Amino acid sequence: MIYNIQVPIIERKAINNEIVEVGFDLLNNEFAFKAGQYIKLELNLLYDDPKGNVREFNIISSPTSRKLSLAFKLSDSGFKRTLCKITKGTLVSIRGPFGNFILPTYDAEIKMVAHGIGITPCLSIIRYASEMRLGYKITLFYFNDGYELPYINELRMLEKINKRFKVDTSYSLKDADAFGLWYVSGARKNVRELLNILYKKGVRDSQFVVEEFTGY
Ligand SMILES: Cc1cc2nc3c(=O)[nH]c(=O)nc-3n(C[C@H](O)[C@H](O)[C@H](O)COP(=O)(O)OP(=O)(O)OC[C@H]3O[C@@H](n4cnc5c(N)ncnc54)[C@H](O)[C@@H]3O)c2cc1C
Questions:
Q1: pTM flag (> 0.85)
Q2: Yes or no: is domain 3-98 CATH 2.40.30.10?
Q3: Of 38, 137, 214, 215, which has the fewest Cβ atoms less than 10 A away?
Q4: Is residue 77 lining ligand 1, measured as CB closer than 6 Å?
Q5: Residue extents of the structural domains in the chain
Q6: Cβ 136 vs Cβ 165: under 8 Å
Q7: Is the CB of 100 under 6 A from ligand 1?
Q8: Per-residue pLDDT tens for 41-85?
Q9: 38 Cβ inside 6 Å of ligand 1
Q10: Which strand ranges, in their side-by-side order, compose the sheet holding 208-213?
């Protein structure tokens, strides 16, 4: 089911120099989604934006939370400047959920590869799987061109709590074998590079679950 809801912004915080997190209160709205899905966020723009007033964002919060959170990379676009400026309580429109970057219905070994902001859909899945003590074995290969890794402290903490979850921050993917399902997310250019590395390791099309962020 696709919902159309209006919800207030209740939180905004910097995760690092380039990434900001925003949270919305779902109030009494019904909004069922699966960990790893995305929404379309519509704003009343305070600044002009030739690309309009709607952008897609993956949800980073767990489906069990009544706060729906997103994280985005800062830019000078009118849309993001508006998102950084609107005051707490301002209503925004959210349409969704969309996307197939979700856990499989069968037990499978899961390998996630995230580059920078590509962590967003993975974060929702890892939070949910850890909280619900799901049986999936998940390894996250995570890197960011030498920059600080967003949410790495939380991920390290989840690694301690959830013995079936591991984080590997080596870009070479040298310890990766070709088995299991491969979840790859992030800006298009980064996703294409990662898929090429994985194809060379013998991963096949049917093993990939991909979320490509257009717009970067
Ligand atoms: C399925 C899906 C999921 C996604 N999930 C996420 C997510 O979780 N997090 C996330 O951050 N993004 C996500 N995206 C991408 C997101 O929707 C935006 O396209 C992206 O964040 C770029 O938006 P923007 O407003 O910064 O840049 P755009 O307006 O699209 O512009 C592109 C670039 O031009 C530059 N630019 C634009 N306007 C100006 C201006 N006036 N002056 C100077 N420079 C300018 C900006 O620096 C920007 O880098 C997702 C996309 C898809 C399709």
A1: yes
A2: yes
A3: 214
A4: yes
A5: 3-98, 109-213
A6: no
A7: no
A8: 999 999 999 999 999 999 999 999 999 999 999 999 999 999 999
A9: yes
A10: 165-168, 137-143, 109-115, 181-187, 208-213
